[in-house]
Amino acid sequence: MNLDQLRERIDEIDAKLLELLNQRMEVVHEVGALKRTSKTVIYRPEREKFIIDRLYKLNKGGLTRAAIEAIFLEIFSVSRHFELPERVAYLGPEGSFTHQAAESRFGAVSEYVALNNIKQIFDSVETERVRFGVVPIENNQEGSVAETIDQLCERDIKIVAEVPMSIHFTLSGLEDRLEKIHTIYSKDIAFRQCKNFLENYFGDRVNLVEVASTSKAAKLASEEEGAAAICSHIAAKLYNLPVLFENIEDSKSNRTRFFIISKNIVNQKSDNDKTTILAKIKDEPGGLVEFLNDFKREKINLCKLESRPARIKASFKYFFLIDFEGHYTDLNAQRIFEKYGERITFLGSYVRMV
Ligand SMILES: C=C(O[C@@H]1C=C(C(=O)O)C=C[C@H]1O)C(=O)O
């Protein structure tokens, strides 16, 4: 087949895909109507995961799991938008990694609100100005984000999903030759994470200029000759900045875990869940040991245990933020909830991604 014939073939397939996608949207529309009458939630991450797992098993062609996921996550977000337009707040500015995490779940069609700090995201979710919020919870190199944990302790908010994301940096700029670059903009932690690259390619012949965010860096580099930015892909795209080098970070295993939060949404059980709780454990000898032993007895695997100051008057008391395997409706989890009553605050059960 020549190029024209091949393109004709693609056009035919696209017409069929479009027809099928429209058919799918009609069914989604009916699901939306059912959900409205039964007053249930639109976003069902466990159903979305089930669909992707199923398609991956069915797949006989060359599409990888990541490709199937990318295509279908976009279809789901268009579907959800069709059922009910969603507003999503994320930790800005535009082009941040949290923006990238938000887009990976809510696609290109949702309405996004970039906010300046984590507290503002919790405020707008709690007051229902937005349906969902996206916040970082931990980085595998730098540890937990204390502000997110503190907000989870204080608010009436549920965790709907976790989103792990590899953090990659690019060197992006308008210059086509490295010798012409004399200034590199970025955020302090991004410079620290790309030290080897900078030493190998630039030595000490460039000015490294720290700015508030990597997307600000991309913006500045897009306005200046001889400048470049260390920034994410999404920030480079936002400012039409050509990517010169990809994956320039020193550690290839740099990952951040984000939470999608919402008010009062509780997911149904899937075949692979995780639950997050906040525990106020008795301040007495053996209090923590007894608590942990209960998990052992119930054969519940803990994934994370982190203490945070409870910030009650001048005392040194602590909350524990705990992630464990399983859904809150599991009988063994229920026995723990019953035993500890108000000492445990349930923050959410969601499909396990990490
Ligand atoms: C259509 C539904 O609603 C949403 C959209 C989905 C889809 O497009 O397949 C899947 C789960 C939900 O997030 C559903 O619950 O089945």
From TrEMBL:
Residues 1-87 form the Chorismate mutase domain. Keywords: Amino-acid biosynthesis, Aromatic amino acid biosynthesis, Cytoplasm, Isomerase, Lyase, Multifunctional enzyme, Phenylalanine biosynthesis. Its EC number is 4.2.1.51, 5.4.99.5. It catalyses: chorismate = prephenate; prephenate + H(+) = 3-phenylpyruvate + CO2 + H2O. Pathway: Amino-acid biosynthesis; L-phenylalanine biosynthesis; phenylpyruvate from prephenate: step 1/1; Metabolic intermediate biosynthesis; prephenate biosynthesis; prephenate from chorismate: step 1/1. The record marks 256 as: Essential for prephenate dehydratase activity. Catalyzes the Claisen rearrangement of chorismate to prephenate and the decarboxylation/dehydration of prephenate to phenylpyruvate. This is Bifunctional chorismate mutase/prephenate dehydratase. It comes from Rapidithrix thailandica.
